[in-house]
Amino acid sequence: MSVSAVGSFWLSPSPGKLPRPRMVVRSSAVSVAPILTHLQKQCATPLPVLRHVADAMAADMRAGLAVDGGSDLKMILSYVDTFPTGNEKGLFYALDLGGTNFRVLRVQLGGKDERVIATEFEQVTIPQELMFGTSEELFDFIACGLANFAKKEGGKFHLPSGRKREIGFTFSFPVKQTSIDSGILMKWTKGFAVSGTAGRDVVACLNEAMERQGLDMQVSALVNDTVGTLAGARYWDDDVMVAVILGTGTNACYVERTDVIPKLQGQMSSSGRTIISTEWGAFSNGLPLTEFDRDMDAASINPGEQIFEKTISGMYLGEIVRRVLLKMAEAGALFGEYVSEKLSTPFILRTPDICAMQQDNSDHLDAVGAILYDVAGVKSDLSVRKMVVEVCDTIVKRGGRLAGAGIVGILQKMEEDSKDLIFGKRTVVAMDGGLYENYPQYRRYLKEAVTELLGLEMSKNVVIEHSKDGSGIGAALLAASNSKY
Ligand code: ADP
Ligand code: MG
Question: Which GO terms describe its molecular function (predicted)?
């Protein structure tokens, strides 16, 4: 998935020009009520809006499958066309570079009966300076972390003699995949600005770094996190057809029939199927957007791009809420006479903060008050806190429901090509990512939208399931099923 850099938003407004913050407690919930009402109206996602989004998602998918560049959705070929069968045996590694951390994992697979015998993993934080350094420095750091982890192998983990350790490499940045084990980095995202990688094969970059470290391992599969999640979930359940990541950014992938992918020009896989990474974060058709979304987009590193991602994913929900609260503070004196400097600071209110505020069940909304004070530097009374929670709910409801409509769009596209094979039987959508995992209201809104769109009967066949950390094991499984041995 691709998301833009946080740093680029630090353009406006200039905090220096604002009045010094002073804490004036005065409830102004009444005067901001019209702003809330207007926001709720603009963010509303009644059934016709959801239906339009689902239909447009399906149509954009088709256009992206027809020809490269045919749609907002890139519909990237993953080169994953066989799934782990359960028969995989042996020791495999996974390396996941997705955001601020990278994770290394090893798994000992025991085949049909024993399945996963043992797993171990480690997480390493990437030092800030490496996100702005050279490609060699970053990949050396990763290879070094991998080497240290590999040294600790023992116990239940065994490599048969005469074999190299094989790695499934999960790399969640936009890659033009060239085969199952190679792909060119199109551009860094998510705050990374590493020089010398764009335009290069990231597997070659890793191989060269491993050589410099004297580490004799081999990348057998390069995948993104959605593909890893799909493979990991499907190892346990044959009905998994779609995987969705809702974390810092968002993306979705699914199992497609090769005969309905015109841009393949007749290249068929032996299985007749392949996984397509939709790159749905770039979707933009018919979304209910507000002035707050447009302003946030205009201030971003990638204006006009990744609009669906900016409306539904974790990096942005808190920032949209902050922009609404700022307007309420400026136009309606929500927090009294002055606007705090903190509240004027882009990205200071994070999605985990608005999530925590929505979990507050206390009579006086004490946690909401504390977060507003600590994070935004404002005091609030109960009526103001209620107003703030309403704003959070409005933005999160829109995000969750639109994500649900997107999922239905994918299922609808699959059903159109394969009558009754999606809605006529059990179909599983594997979900992962910090936003989905941690935000109960978001999850509920997402599922409600799916049920509204499909109706009670049909939605019984669609199982939306959290697949925790499936992507790491999934990548290792793909290394196993694409083993060089
Ligand atoms: P990534 O997408 O970078 O691989 P994750 O899947 O772990 O990482 O997702 C991290 C994102 O999840 C954060 O950026 C944040 O938006 C969201 N998130 C994390 N914790 C919470 C929380 N408690 N409540 C709501 N959202 C959360
Ligand atoms: Mg991730």
Answer: ATP binding; D-glucose binding; fructokinase activity; glucokinase activity
